[in-house]
Amino acid sequence: VGRTGALTPVALMEPVKLAGTTVTHATLHNFDEIERLGVRVGDSVVVEKAGDIIPKVVRVLDKLRTGEEKKVRQPKTCPVCRSVVQKYGLATGESKEGVALICSNNKCYAKELENIIHFVSKKAFNIDGMGEKIVGQLLDEGLIKNVADIFTLKLGDLEVLERFATKSAQNLIEAIDNAKKVTFARFIFALGILHVGVETAEKLAEHFATLNKLMKASKEELENLSDVGPRVAQSISDYFAESDNKKLLEDLITNGVKIQTIKKQKDSENLAGMTFVLTGTLPNLSREEVTEKIKANGGQVVGSVSKKTSYVIVGESPGSKYDKAQELGVNILDEENFLKMLK
C-alpha cells in the first residue's frame, strides 16, 4: 500500500540474479496488468529491470505450467487496515474507473507511514536519521500521527524509546530543527500530491513563489503551466481543496516550518537546448548533483533514451539505457568529459 493508498501487487519469486543483484520480488503494477499477462500463483515468469532499478514481470512461460497454478484474486479490502478498496481511474482521476485499487480509508496506517517516509526523504525535507524503521516506531508509539507532528518532537520523547541513546536522540532533534527551513519546491514535493514529482514541484514553486498563491490558483491557471496537464492540475486543486490538507499546512507553519523562496540563477547556458540521460554510478558525483549541474547550465535531464537525446552520461554498471544509446548512436559521456563541458 503506497502513500496514495494504491495497492500494488508484487510477485514473490525464488531468488534470481538480475543485472548484478539477487532479486526475490518484482512489481506487477496493477491487477489489469496481472490479467493482461495471465499471471498465476506458481507460474514461471520472465523478469527484467525497469529503468535499471525496479524488477518487473514481463512475460509468463505458460508452457512450463504443471496444472497446479492458481488464479490471482483481487482483494476486496486493504491488506493493512481492512477498509474497502475501490477502483480508481489513473487517467481520469475518477473513482470506480480505471486500473488502480485504492484503500478508501484516508487514515490508513500504511498510507500515513508512506506519506511520512516520503516527506522526510532526501528530495523532500531530507531529515537525516529518520528512516523507515524510526518513522514506524514513532507512529506505533503514538508520538506522531502525521508529518506536522514531526516538528513537535522533544528530546525527552525520543530518549526513552528503544534504539535511541541520548546522542542519537539529540542528533535526530537537531536534524528535524535544521529541516524546518526548506525551499518551496522541496515543500511542495514533500506534500506527496498525486502526480506531482520533483520537476513539477520546481515549476510550481518558480511560478507561484508563495504557498498562499499556489493554494489559491485555479485549475485553469495551473493548466497553463508547461508540463501541467488537466490530470495534474485537477490533482493539485483537489489537494488544496481538502480541509484536512489545509489544516495540515497550517500545522506545519505553526510548528515552525519556514518556506524559503530561492531564485535560481543559471551558471551558464553551456548546455542550453541539450537533453541528458543518466545511467550507472559515477565515481564522484551523485545523480542529484549531476542533475543540478545540468539544469544550472541550461540543460535538461530526461528519463529515457531516444534519437533526440543529446548525451547519455554513463557510470559504473550501466543498464539498458547505455545499450539503447549505442544502438541509436547517441553521444556517450563519462563524468570527466561531462565536467569539461561545463568549463
From TrEMBL:
<dbReference type="Pfam" id="PF03120">
    <property type="entry name" value="OB_DNA_ligase"/>
</dbReference>
<dbReference type="InterPro" id="IPR036420">
    <property type="entry name" value="BRCT_dom_sf"/>
</dbReference>
<feature type="domain" description="BRCT">
    <location>
        <begin position="266"/>
        <end position="343"/>
    </location>
</feature>
<dbReference type="InterPro" id="IPR001357">
    <property type="entry name" value="BRCT_dom"/>
</dbReference>
<keyword id="KW-0235">DNA replication</keyword>
<dbReference type="GO" id="GO:0003911">
    <property type="term" value="F:DNA ligase (NAD+) activity"/>
</dbReference>
<keyword id="KW-0479">Metal-binding</keyword>
<dbReference type="GO" id="GO:0006281">
    <property type="term" value="P:DNA repair"/>
</dbReference>
<dbReference type="GO" id="GO:0003677">
    <property type="term" value="F:DNA binding"/>
</dbReference>
<dbReference type="InterPro" id="IPR003583">
    <property type="entry name" value="Hlx-hairpin-Hlx_DNA-bd_motif"/>
</dbReference>
<dbReference type="Pfam" id="PF14520">
    <property type="entry name" value="HHH_5"/>
</dbReference>
<dbReference type="InterPro" id="IPR041663">
    <property type="entry name" value="DisA/LigA_HHH"/>
</dbReference>
<dbReference type="Pfam" id="PF12826">
    <property type="entry name" value="HHH_2"/>
</dbReference>
<keyword id="KW-0436">Ligase</keyword>
<dbReference type="GO" id="GO:0006260">
    <property type="term" value="P:DNA replication"/>
</dbReference>
<keyword id="KW-0234">DNA repair</keyword>
<dbReference type="GO" id="GO:0046872">
    <property type="term" value="F:metal ion binding"/>
</dbReference>
<comment type="similarity">
    <text>Belongs to the NAD-dependent DNA ligase family. LigA subfamily.</text>
</comment>
<keyword id="KW-0862">Zinc</keyword>
<dbReference type="InterPro" id="IPR012340">
    <property type="entry name" value="NA-bd_OB-fold"/>
</dbReference>
<dbReference type="InterPro" id="IPR004150">
    <property type="entry name" value="NAD_DNA_ligase_OB"/>
</dbReference>
<keyword id="KW-0227">DNA damage</keyword>
<keyword id="KW-0520">NAD</keyword>
<dbReference type="InterPro" id="IPR010994">
    <property type="entry name" value="RuvA_2-like"/>
</dbReference>
<keyword id="KW-0460">Magnesium</keyword>
<dbReference type="InterPro" id="IPR013840">
    <property type="entry name" value="DNAligase_N"/>
</dbReference>
<protein>
    <recommendedName>
        <fullName>DNA ligase</fullName>
        <ecNumber>6.5.1.2</ecNumber>
    </recommendedName>
</protein>
<comment type="function">
    <text>DNA ligase that catalyzes the formation of phosphodiester linkages between 5'-phosphoryl and 3'-hydroxyl groups in double-stranded DNA using NAD as a coenzyme and as the energy source for the reaction. It is essential for DNA replication and repair of damaged DNA.</text>
</comment>
<dbReference type="Pfam" id="PF00533">
    <property type="entry name" value="BRCT"/>
</dbReference>
<dbReference type="InterPro" id="IPR033136">
    <property type="entry name" value="DNA_ligase_CS"/>
</dbReference>
